[in-house]
Amino acid sequence: MRGKLIIFSAPSGTGKSTIISWLMREHKELNLSFSISCTSRAPRGTEQDGVEYFFLTPEEFRQRIEHNEFLEYEEVYQDRFYGTLKSQVERQLEAGQNVVFDVDVKGGVNIKDYYGDEALSIFIQPPSIQELRRRLEHRATDAPEVIDQRIARAEFELTFAEKFDKIVINDILDNAKADALALVKDFLK
């Protein structure tokens, strides 16, 4: 049986990756698999081609863009691309996997537009910008100017929330996990 797609998008610091990891680890019955993206950066540490990413040169990436092979892609820095190949997602869907995406808001909207009712798009929203700032500061991983940049980006990304099928407000993490689980279970049945 063909799988379905579950798209998660959110501003940085909202708990999106925590929720996705929990769903994949604690709810094997959902048959969730990450989409394997492409990147033009070099592998890090023990990363392997076809496992964490498909590693392409910037030239290969541009050729695939020209041939319309991506569902979504972004050039994050000059010659540093990330994207999702249509062919890879199709392979995973045909294998019966429910494919999970952890993508930026534009990518999430593009994937939803492409797959329509085969995809559920979920936007994880912070309770407020002030709380998001507090979380990012509490992480203590970014300089103040980086936090300011992330907040400015979050304010922009929040304008996309209404383009998603569902919004989960992550005020209390356990509640947000339960909400996301209920949405995914309902969609997959």
How would you briefly describe this protein structure?
This protein is of the alpha/beta class and 189 residues long.
SSE diagram, text form:
Elements: E1 5-9, H1 16-26, E2 32-34, E3 37-39, E4 53-55, H2 58-66, E5 70-77, E6 80-85, H3 86-94, E7 98-102, H4 105-115, E8 119-125, H5 129-139, H6 144-158, E9 166-169, H7 173-188
Parallel strand pairs: 1-7, 1-8, 2-7, 3-4, 8-9
Antiparallel strand pairs: 3-6, 5-6
Helix pairs in contact: 5-6
Helix count from the secondary structure assignment: 7
* Average pLDDT for all residues: 94
Shape: globular
* Major sheet: arrangement of strands: 2-7-1-8-9
Number of strands: 9
Rg calculated over all Cα atoms: 17 Å
Q: Which percent band covers the strand fraction?
A: 15-25%
Structural class: alpha/beta
Helix and strand run: EHEEEHEEHEHEHHEH
Low-pLDDT segments: none
Percent range of helical residues: 40-55%
Observed structural traits:
four-stranded mixed β-sheet, alpha/beta, globular, 9 strands, five-stranded parallel β-sheet, 189 residues, 23% strand
Task: Write structural notes for this entry.
The chain has seven helices and nine strands; from the N terminus they run βαβββαββαβαβααβα. It has a five-stranded parallel beta sheet with strand order 2-7-1-8-9, with helices on both faces. A hairpin with a 2-residue loop joins strand 5 (70-77) and strand 6. 43% of the residues lie in helices and 23% in strands.
